[in-house]
Write a structure and sequence with these properties.
Layout (H helix, E strand, L loop, with lengths): L5 H10 L2 H6 L5 E3 L2 E4 L11 E4 L4 E4 L5 E2 L1 H9 L3 H12 L11 H25 L5 H9 L4 H6 L3 E3 L4 H5 L12 E4 L2 E4 L4 E7 L5 E8 L7 E3 L15 H11 L2 E3 L3 H9 L5 E2 L8 H10 L2 E7 L2 H14 L8 E7 L5 H7 L2 H9 L2 E2 H12 L5 H15 L5 H20 L17 H13 L1 H6 L1 H4 L17 H30 L5 H23 L1
Parallel strand pairs: 12-13, 12-14, 14-15
Antiparallel strand pairs: 1-2, 2-3, 3-4, 4-5, 6-9, 7-8, 9-10, 10-11, 15-16
Helix pairs in contact: 3-4, 21-22
Length: about 525
């Protein structure tokens, strides 16, 4: 077997859910924290094959087979290691690199970076409780942080002087850690006069820092630049603390910033995490989906929050499964989760989370807000936007359900129209309840028929938003029903017109009545042929 760079195989494990990989071959059902199915490696009728999404492994309690996405792909497809990696890379949408073993110098450098970050966190923590850090301690306590919270999250203070550069001047990889930079007069600290939040990786190791300004300067937060052990777009703040809670709550909550995440975790929502001052990325969502596919995005209700939510909605589409429950909540009134918890308490925050919009509704809301659907051009743009978003869904059946839902909404909200009453000269009888329920069922089940017969259906005055009893009608029978009803209503209209002409006593109406009789005969013939099919 060739030597492969472990960084790449780790990336595959991070990007791909083992449930998705195994689920392509084995039907899985979630029971508790694990997924279960019949083992593909030996014959069995009772499922004993367990898949743990968070830990990324499978285990069969029947035959003892055990492994991860790579071993599963190798064994289930009878592939060698290279072929399995190639297939998984294709699934993950990443390019296969030229593999080579990790050099011992790289391993030593990474160990050194972990060590520097750990020691720096200790220095920052100590400085917070010295006279130099008094204003930082006053600020963080003013934000509602207790000493226990400060200790748990290892919050600290970076003083104005170059404390890290002076203490760790002999460290070989100090600049590579992102904590120091080299200037004209030697090394200087990157973080100075900042409230410091250590950034942990998923295993609980400190890999970087986020510093908050204390003098009102912008930007409010600055983060360590990417290093060998830290990649901002692949790191979710607070995930190491939230993992167990995500399993218990059967969801994760994503907020905008570190302080919001910490206050939510300590205020009754321990399943809360946050990106690191950047827009959400596919890597962030992939990490969260490995823990749980139910996510509530909770952003500020301002323009920036709405924009962030729309971006999250677009990114999450490719991660949707029929077991996903994605929602969007907004904190309005110029407040954020921290302020809601402080002023109104956990119950008010829980109400905001509980009233979150499901993804299907939020995407519909975005579409109608961004396009003028009252016009043909606007509807065309909206249609293209929806199609582009729905095409990201990899589960074809789930995609079809979304399309059916939106086709129904488009008909009811975009295309349904009311006739100009002044143009109506003949009043036809109202649609009876049975006919109405049948049409409601047909339109909600086969929205494409609504598009095809929109002009006729729009004259009936029926609210197609309602519900109707389940009927055993396939698409052909449903279309036949609409056409036959259309012919019957046409015949009714012709008869009413004929009656009005006869009542008028107009001596010149004879030719017109004969024409109507001929039209009635032709329509009845078509109706009889349709019924006989």
């Amino acid at each position: 077997m060739a030597n492969f760079d472990r960084n790449f195989t780790d990336e595959l494990r991070a990007r791909l859910s083992i449930v998705d990989v195994v689920g392509r071959r084995v039907p899985l059902v979630k029971k508790g924290q694990n997924y279960w199915g019949c083992c593909p490696f030996h014959n069995e009728k009772t499922p004993s094959f367990s898949v743990n999404e968070e830990k990324g492994f499978y285990h069969c309690f029947g035959c003892g087979e055990h492994g991860d996405i790579i071993s599963f792909t190798m064994k289930s497809n009878n592939m060698d290691f290279v072929a399995a990696i190639t297939e998984l890379a294709d699934m993950a949408g990443v390019k296969m690199p030229e593999y080579k073993p990790k050099h011992p110098d790289i391993v030593k450098r990474e160990e050194s970076l972990f060590d520097i970050c750990e020691k720096a966190a200790t220095v920052y923590s100590e400085k917070l409780f010295t006279p130099d850090g008094a204003h930082a301690l006053e600020y963080v306590r003013g934000r509602g942080f207790t000493d226990d919270m400060i200790k748990k999250y290892r919050i600290g203070y970076a003083p104005k002087n170059n404390i890290i550069a002076n203490k760790f001047v002999s460290s070989k990889h100090l600049i590579e850690s992102g904590l120091c930079r080299r200037g004209d007069y030697g090394l200087y600290d990157f973080f100075r006069d900042k409230l410091m939040f250590p950034i942990f990786n998923a295993n609980g190791k400190i890999v970087a820092f986020s510093g908050r300004s204390l003098d009102g300067s912008e930007p409010k937060y600055i983060n360590t630049s990417d290093t060998d052990i830290f990649h901002k777009r692949k790191t979710v703040f607070g995930l190491n603390f939230a993992r167990d809670a995500i399993h218990r709550a059967n969801r994760s909550i994503v907020v905008e910033g570190q302080i919001d995440a910490i206050k939510m975790q300590c205020g009754g929502f321990p399943e809360t995490v946050a990106p690191l001052g950047t827009a959400l990325t596919e890597d962030h969502i992939a990490l969260l989906c490995k823990s749980n596919r139910n996510i509530v995005f909770c952003f500020d209700g301002d323009g920036a929050g709405q924009k962030a939510a729309a971006r999250a909605c677009s990114i999450v589409m490719s991660f949707l499964r029929d077991t996903s429950d994605i929602k969007f909540a907004f904190v309005t009134g110029g407040k954020d989760p921290d302020e809601i918890l402080k002023t109104s308490g956990a119950d008010a925050m829980r109400k905001i989370i509980d009233e979150a919009l499901p993804l299907v509704d939020f995407l519909w809301q975005i579409t109608n807000a961004n396009f003028l659907t009252k016009t043909p051009g606007g509807r065309s743009q909206a249609e293209k936007f929806l199609k582009k978003e729905l095409d990201k869904i990899v589960d074809s059946e789930l995609k079809m359900e979304f399309e059916k839902e939106y086709n129904s909404r488009k008909f009811n909200s975009w295309h349904r129209w009311k006739r100009n009453e002044s143009a109506v000269q003949i009043k036809l009888p109202d649609i009876d309840t049975i006919t109405k329920n049948t049409l409601v069922y047909i339109i909600n089940t086969y929205p494409e028929l609504a598009e095809q017969y929109m002009d006729f259906l729009g004259t009936l005055g029926i609210n197609f938003d309602g519900t109707a009893p389940e009927l055993n009608l396939d698409k052909t029978a449903a279309e036949k029903y609409i056409v036959s009803l259309k012919l019957q209503r046409y015949i009714q209209k012709l008869n009413l017109t004929k009656t009005e002409l006869i009542k008028s006593g107009d001596d010149n109406a004879g030719d017109e009545i004969k024409k109507i009789d001929n039209d009635i005969a032709n329509a009845k013939e078509k109706l009889e042929k349709l019924i006989s099919i």
